[in-house]
Specification:
660 residues; alpha+beta; Rossmann fold; six-stranded mixed β-sheet; five-stranded antiparallel β-sheet; 28 helices; globular; disordered N terminus
């Protein structure tokens, strides 16, 4: 092995020299490094570097940045960007807008106060930061004289031998290159072959939302459910890079063709499908397109009725892997092709439940629980139904109803799921959240969230899951995991919010503001980015803007979640507007007459008003019901000034003792 490594190193050095000679001969263009702020954009290896680390970006997004940087200080029309980056491919302007949103997030930029990318309304974008351009060292080769490519005249040939001397060194360089390659070829042919491990190339795929063409909206649960399950199953296979569901569902109503979407997302293949009805049968038409040349790798029609959707799902997964030439022997102990249940009715009930929980509605979650319960009654061995049941109860216990009514049920359901399938990441994620928020047991939570895929599952249930792992001393690994997941799902508001939350708890409030603004752009109907942005602005002292952000959710979406009312009330209180704080307090009290309102939220407003007795009273009530929000007092900057209060610290010590 030592000899092989040595030979490999020499070969690399010689070939590098040879190819440099080749570059000198053919006159390749100089590759550049562009520096702006704390970033380097390198043409040589097509990468964006920030403080020494590579930023994960899709190829098309990186091309957009390169085109803007090369024209720094000048307006770049949208049409120019589309023609340059997506040449000969039809894409919509929202594809470019999404790329700009991702770039702004990674650059820490803001559309309102841009430092890098400025929007020119209706026209395009301008890169406004100062840019330093420098030739990459490895590509800085002297240009070849123009005469090298020009034939010599008869006169010059007979009277002046200089041109021959001019190109003679280049001919020698070419000869040396061929000798080196031939030598390497002979030296490393089979008789010198080592036992090097050949890693199979990573296959990347996007599964686009199956279109419901039946004319029956009630069947959306079938099309969306089969899309989600296909993404989930493929994502669990090592050796596949699968675009996340948030980004995939952004293309639900697109008119782009599969090949252009594949180029946009930087994947090898795109799976598309249509659900139609033929009398009493459902017809699922699926097509797998290869991005590079638009070759159809799979085109199949699956006939089904609601009684055998489970079999169709399994066949689709098998056919997709086969069309991708994926070696299923590599699956080892994984079993994504095996249905989680043998009962078709249970599978359909679970599909209905999963469709409901994608709406994030309180009532939808309650209805979903009924479907998950039906599924577990039809098949008590259905691991995913038990896991989904746990997640639904957990979500209600965190955001909508008393934890006492839901957390114990969620725990039992998650434990049952893991008895049936010990590797199920969703169940591990649910248990980790329960351990931390309900039992205040950070050690057990850390153990659960370390399992493969568990953190991602936890993030789908609870904002700031990265911070929860920070509590267990795993801040860096958790944040790196989020950035890795973002490379698979760059349009995920949830993941971008996670980065904002991590920055908030590290007191990097400017970074938090940038992340949360990006998240709101992607998902204006999700309340959690508004919460994060509001409290980050409050910590920066931008109180009026914070209140405007927190109150804007209700104006945009038609209702005010209790957690945003409370946060707005706290900000009004600390900024010297007690009357406005009490208005929000009364609004919370009114909501509490018809729905569950976490006692912690009342404590938060009283804390802002410096009403010590009421703050402690409501914190104790929150502890009595095991409030899922109470855990934040251990590290939230809003509560730092309460650390000297003995009564407050008694509550904290109770939580810490359980955590330890």
């Amino acid at each position: 092995m030592a000899r092989s490594s040595c030979h490999g190193a020499w070969l690399a050095l010689w070939l590098d020299y040879g190819f440099r000679c080749r570059a000198a001969v053919i006159g390749e263009g100089t590759l550049m490094i562009y520096r702006f702020g704390d970033f380097e954009l390198r043409e040589e290896d097509f990468s964006l570097i920030h403080n020494g680390s590579r930023v994960a970006l899709e190829p098309k997004t990186l091309l957009v940045l390169l085109h803007l940087v090369k024209h720094a200080g000048h307006l770049v029309e949208k049409s120019s960007l589309l023609d340059t980056v997506w040449a000969n491919t039809f894409v919509e302007e929202n594809t470019l807008a999404r790329a700009i949103t991702v770039l702004r997030h990674e650059l820490g930029d803001s559309p309102r106060d841009p430092k890098f990318i400025q929007t020119i309304p209706t026209r395009g974008y301008r890169f406004i930061a100062a840019v330093e351009a420098q030739a990459a060292l490895s590509s800085s080769v002297p240009p070849v004289a123009d005469t090298f490519m020009q034939p010599a005249t008869t006169a010059s040939t007979s009277s002046n031998p200089q041109p021959i001397r001019r190109w003679l060194p280049e001919m020698v360089a070419i000869a040396v290159l061929f000798v080196l390659i031939a030598t390497a070829f002979m030296f490393f042919w089979p008789w010198h072959r080592t036992n090097a491990v050949v890693r199979p190339a990573l296959i990347s795929i996007a599964v686009l939302p199956i279109q419901n063409r039946t004319g029956e909206p009630s069947l959306d649960y079938v099309s969306d459910g089969m899309t989600q399950n296909t993404i989930q199953a493929l994502a669990g296979i090592s050796g596949l890079r699968v675009i996340g569901s948030t980004t995939a569902f952004h293309f639900r109503d697109t008119t782009q063709d599969a090949q252009s979407i594949g180029h946009t997302l930087g994947v090898n293949a795109v799976l598309v499908g249509r659900l139609q009805r033929n009398q009493d049968r459902l017809v699922l038409n699926m097509e797998l397109n290869q991005t590079s040349d638009n070759t159809i790798l799979l085109s199949h029609q699956y006939l089904s009725d609601l009684a055998n959707l489970r079999d169709v799902q399994a066949d689709l997964l098998h056919d997709t892997l086969q069309a991708l030439s994926f070696d299923t022997a590599r699956l080892g102990g994984q079993s994504p092709l095996r249905p989680h249940t043998d009962n078709p009715g249970a599978y359909e009930e679970n599909l209905r439940g999963e469709a409901l929980i994608r709406t994030d509605s309180h009532q939808a979650f309650r209805e979903a629980i009924g479907h998950f319960q039906n599924a577990t009654q039809m098949d008590s061995q259905f691991d995913r139904a038990w896991s989904d049941l746990a997640a639904a109860h957990l979500f209600l216990g965190i955001y909508y109803e008393s934890p006492l009514d839901h957390m114990p049920i969620a725990r039992r359901a998650a434990q049952r799921a893991l008895e049936l399938n010990p590797s199920l990441p969703e169940a591990h994620g649910s248990l980790g959240v329960i351990d931390l928020l309900y039992d205040w047991d950070s050690a057990s939570a850390a153990s659960e969230l370390e399992k493969e895929g568990a953190l991602r599952s936890a993030m789908s249930l609870l904002a700031c899951s990265v911070h929860l792992r920070e509590q267990a001393g795993q801040a860096r690994s958790a944040e790196e995991e989020v950035r890795r997941l973002l490379s698979y799902d760059p349009q995920s508001e949830m993941l971008i919010s996670e980065l904002g939350c991590a920055a908030y708890y590290e007191h990097h409030f400017d970074d938090a503001v940038r992340s949360y603004r990006s998240a709101i752009e992607l998902a204006p109907s999700s309340p959690l980015p508004y919460l994060g942005l509001g409290r980050s602005l409050t910590e920066l002292g931008h109180d009026q803007e914070a209140v405007e952000v927190l109150d804007s959710f209700a104006k945009r979406n038609g209702f005010a979640p209790p957690i945003l009312l409370a946060e707005s009330g706290y900000t009004c209180a600390v900024s010297g507007h007690p009357d406005a704080a009490m208005q929000r307090m009364h609004a919370l009290e009114k909501q509490a007459k018809s729905m569950y309102v976490d006692p912690y939220l009342f404590a938060l407003i009283y804390h802002g008003l410096h009403d010590h007795d009421q703050t402690i009273f409501w914190l104790k009530k929150a502890a009595a019901v095991h409030s899922a929000l109470l855990f934040s007092v251990l590290s939230d900057p809003m509560w730092q000034n309460a650390q000297a209060d003995p009564q407050f610290m008694a509550i904290v010590e109770t939580m810490k003792s359980k955590s330890n």
